[in-house]
Write the structure tokens for this entry.
Amino acid sequence: MSGPAAPKDAEKQRPSFYIIRNKDIFGGNKTEDGRGVQFLYQDNGRMISSARMVGGITDESMLELLKDVEGFKKLVHSLGVSLEMEDPADEAEFIFQMYGKKDTYGGGSNLIQRMRGDGAEHRIYLADHTWTEDDNVPGQIRVVMDKPELSAKLNVRFYLNDGYTAPEVEDEEKIEFYSEAYNAMIKNSLLLQGDCTRLRRAIEKAKAGEDVTLAYIGGSITQGAGATPIHKESYAMKSCRLFEKKFAAGGNVRLIKAGVGGTPSELGMIRFDRDVLRDHTVEPDVVVVEFAVNDYGDETNGVCYESLVRKALNLPNKPAVILLFAVFADDGNLQERLSPVGRHYNLPMVSIKDAVTPQFYKKKEEGKVLTKSQFFYDLFHPTNAGHTIMADCLANLFDLAEHAADASPEQSTDKLIAQSAVIGSTFEQVKLMDRKDLYSKAKITPGGFTETDQALQCVEMDTELEPVPEFPYNWQYVGADGVDNCFDMDITCKALLLVFKDSGDPSAAKAHISVDGKFVRTADPFENGWIHCNPLVIIDEPESGEHHVHIEAEDPEHRKQCTILGFGYVE
């Protein structure tokens, strides 16, 4: 009689810490062969942040080792990876990709594990893998699911080499949504109730059965980053549906979701007419503006933000404008810089920072509602629970607005908008110009910028999962032999912004920009290192005038790609 084979001796217990714990993922990105992919980026300090936030690591020497592959190998003995899917028989491939020194995306090693979605932990031993000479930094995790659009929960932890320790892994308390402590946290998000007249008007319209449109413009958080699936779990979708559930009979509330990852209000104001107003075919009743964590990249320090707010407030149908202040995992945002705009026009303002940040430092006995790792998906974006909290903070404002008294005549937003700007309104009348929508007072000589770039930043709009390209009507230079590497334009305006394509492609070229024969600045496609829309102010004058703009691709023999996505101009 035979029995099961004797098991291998149990492996030595090693200290470990999580970098990903019970994270909701979704295979919404499709591969060419029809599978679904979730990307989890670990570079640029993200993995170190996760080690702190999720793993509880405070030893700076250990965190320092996570900055590059050599240190990673010194610290980490093995990876423990598990995946839990609705059907445990579904399978996926886990890939931890190292980025290369010379070839960023192709030169590094890949740690690969095939697994089922049954929640069982698989070990990936670093000693079992052959590492490349080009290995530079831990880059990204990909989970490639055999079927598209599957949801799962992912856990990744690092087992440590001898000589290193980690805190004991503690179970997190489940978030008690709608408990007394939770509701108190949500109420703390109200930075300013402001004049709710316009918002109440939208509520009454919905109650009457009329069509109402809620529009959201911002960065990647508004796009839905961290929400899985992104088209169903974003704070924009959730708050829009809460508005509909409370005030409408159903089916008469439309969502306009116009978030673009990594971009400031400097870009938001340029694409407002196209992405929110849909080329003036849509009149939003409510506009939520979320740039408090993206406007670190706004070179005008708030002028673009206020220009965008005024642009929305001055629409003919007078929509309600709500200022929403999200927060990063380092507790930072630009609320202090941007909130004076809301106070200047007595606008409703909602601060996610004010709601959740105090929670992160409370003890359990003090009524702690959630941890930082429960709110944040990564260093920048909320989890599904985080998006729910953001939606509930907006819904709290909706509830207050329903019964809010009218503001005094002196504090009416309709009156206050007539006063001069508190920071600046230079770009309030900015318009987008691209190859589709030209400007009659601009004469363009494209030179070698005659192609159309198809490799563009793409975003999921509204309720859709399929991403759409940003700025598809562009001018691209591809460096063909004998082709002029210059773009020239004669334009009458008082302000002009260039929207330039960032790229991590080694063949991308810098572009040198001159106005009226004087060098102004250089557009660098490696500023962000990924396909990205980057706005740059190149003309800012008090009066409109005639200008000649010259844009020249650098080193056309070796760097053969340069893309002008469009322009924002003020006549």
Remarks:
- The longest helix spans residues 384-402.
- The chain has a mean pLDDT of 91.
- The chain is about 20% helix and 30% strand.
- Residues 239 and 391 are 4 Å apart (CA to CA).
